[in-house]
Amino acid sequence: RPRQCLPRHKGEKGTNCAALPCYADDARSNERVVKQFFAERSIQASPNVVRLIASSFSGDRMNLMSDLEKIHLYIGERSAVTEQDCEKLLAEEKEVGVDELMDAIGTKNAPAATAALNFLNDKAVPHVSIVRAAVYHFLKLRKVKINVQNGSPIETEMTKEFIFFKRVEKFSRQIATSTVESLSECLVKLSDLEIGVKANSAN
């Protein structure tokens, strides 16, 4: 019963304070933000484009505005934004977020892992996709670790695995601080986790 709430009552009746409504953004309010953003810049955006962008966020206005600015920069002088533009940029962001999460887990950086996971949750990346990305990452780590132990230069192995240059330092650190046995144990745990995530998704 909000009208009987004492702080609100004092705010409404007081002469030196006010009660302001605060609501989390939803898909509809996100659509209004997206439409206004493009209208103010004379950029054409179809209803499908607006829905695609708005549905990628859940109550985070700052992230939404940040991505709108990136889309604006990406299209340059063009007067319209397409679904392909949005899908490309949003997909790239998710991929970057997954890489950051994997490197944070691999280097045992809990705060960075939490931040990356929150980012992926905000982007509505399915949990099963995140777990599968972790499986792929640790399979790659184990493969490189085995080859390095057998005498192959780590630089050669990272080139074979197409490790992005910005990730080289963190990937190298993960190789240096892990063992084949520890990586194998991680893969067993990830396999169990994937089964559990799939079961929860089905319920």
Supply database-style keywords:
2 strands; 71% helix; mainly alpha; 203 residues; two-stranded parallel sheet
What does this structure look like?
By secondary structure, the protein is mainly alpha-helical. It contains ten helices and two strands, in the order ααβααβαααααα. The protein is elongated, with a radius of gyration of 23 Å.
What's a quick, concise take on this entry?
With 203 residues, this protein is mainly α. It has ten helices and two strands; from the N terminus they run ααβααβαααααα.
What does the average pLDDT come to? 83
Helical coverage, percent range: over 70%
Please report which band the strand proportion falls in: under 5%, 5-15%, 15-25%, 25-35%, 35-45% or over 45%: under 5%
DSSP helix count?
10
Identify the overall geometry. elongated
* Quaternary organisation: single chain
Structural class comes to mainly alpha
Termini separation (Å)? 34 Å
Listing every helix as H and every strand as E from the N terminus to the C terminus, the arrangement reads: HHEHHEHHHHHH
Across the major sheet, the strand order is 1-2
* Sheet with the most strands, sense and barrel status: 2 strands, parallel
* Radius of gyration using CA atoms only: 23 Å
Please provide the count of β strands: 2
Runs in which pLDDT lies below 50 for 5 or more consecutive residues are: none
